[in-house]
């Protein structure tokens, strides 16, 4: 069962897959940061840890259900000449949910409702945030697990890569969340990223393949430009 430990190529697969899982988890971290920012300050870290914990559990459970995962790629029906599988349905539904949620969050941000919502119904808000994180975890995890299956031959490697990636994300998520919350323009940019990712998920579900490299390059380029703007404003104010 652990014979892969003595195989150099298995360790290369583990490192590559862990790095890929971290990259694919960026959108998850952004989504969690945005949602947790709506909670009272004393609940944010708890929700963030719970959200990433759910992401890890979801991915491991999906990895342990590989037979079911593979069946999800089997076409169920055709719509306007386009074959639709279970995976496509999950991606389309998740993408639409992400677009709708991010648009509502963007609207809420522009009219300044965050503080009112954070201060009212804290308990109900916490459970609502965790529920929304769990829903999107399924979508993000499904895509991540299907990628992992194609890159490694041993399920132990896949599970270990997920655990390592979530560990790194957990360490980084606090700083990312605080940075997003303390910079309103970054928060708007993050919400725009989530809308873009939602559109990409819907397109993927409809078999319109948008290379993820293009999306991540656009995100990185926009972030660099915004960081320059932040630095410039800081210099002017200083």
Automatic annotation (TrEMBL):
UniProt cross-references to InterPro entries, sorted A to Z: Integral_membrane_TerC (IPR005496)
Keywords: Membrane, Transmembrane, Transmembrane helix
GO CC annotation: plasma membrane
Domain of life: Bacteria
Residues that span the membrane, as ranges: 12-37, 49-69, 89-106, 126-151, 157-176, 188-208, 214-232
Pfam families according to UniProt: TerC
Identification of the protein by name: Membrane protein, TerC family
């Amino acid at each position: 069962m652990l014979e892969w430990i003595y195989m150099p190529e298995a360790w290369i697969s583990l490192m590559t897959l862990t790095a890929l899982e971290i990259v694919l988890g960026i959108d998850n971290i952004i989504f969690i940061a945005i949602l947790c920012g709506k909670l009272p300050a004393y609940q944010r870290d708890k929700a963030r840890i719970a959200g990433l914990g759910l992401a890890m559990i979801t991915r491991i459970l999906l990895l342990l259900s590989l037979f079911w995962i593979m069946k999800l790629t089997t076409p169920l029906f055709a719509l306007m000449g386009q074959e639709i599988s279970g995976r496509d349905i999950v991606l389309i539904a998740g993408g639409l949910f992400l677009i709708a949620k991010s648009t509502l969050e963007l609207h809420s941000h522009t009219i300044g409702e965050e503080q009112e919502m954070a201060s009212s119904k804290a308990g109900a808000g916490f459970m609502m945030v965790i529920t929304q994180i769990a829903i999107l975890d399924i979508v993000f995890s499904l895509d991540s697990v299907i990628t992992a299956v194609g890159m490694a031959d041993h399920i132990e490697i896949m599970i270990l890569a997920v655990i390592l990636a979530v560990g790194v994300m957990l360490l980084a998520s606090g700083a990312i969340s605080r940075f997003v919350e303390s910079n309103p323009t970054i928060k708007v940019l993050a919400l725009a990223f989530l809308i873009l990712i939602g559109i990409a998920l819907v397109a993927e579900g409809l078999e319109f393949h948008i290379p993820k490299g293009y999306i991540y390059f656009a995100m990185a380029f926009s972030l660099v430009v915004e960081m320059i703007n932040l630095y410039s404003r800081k210099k002017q104010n200083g």
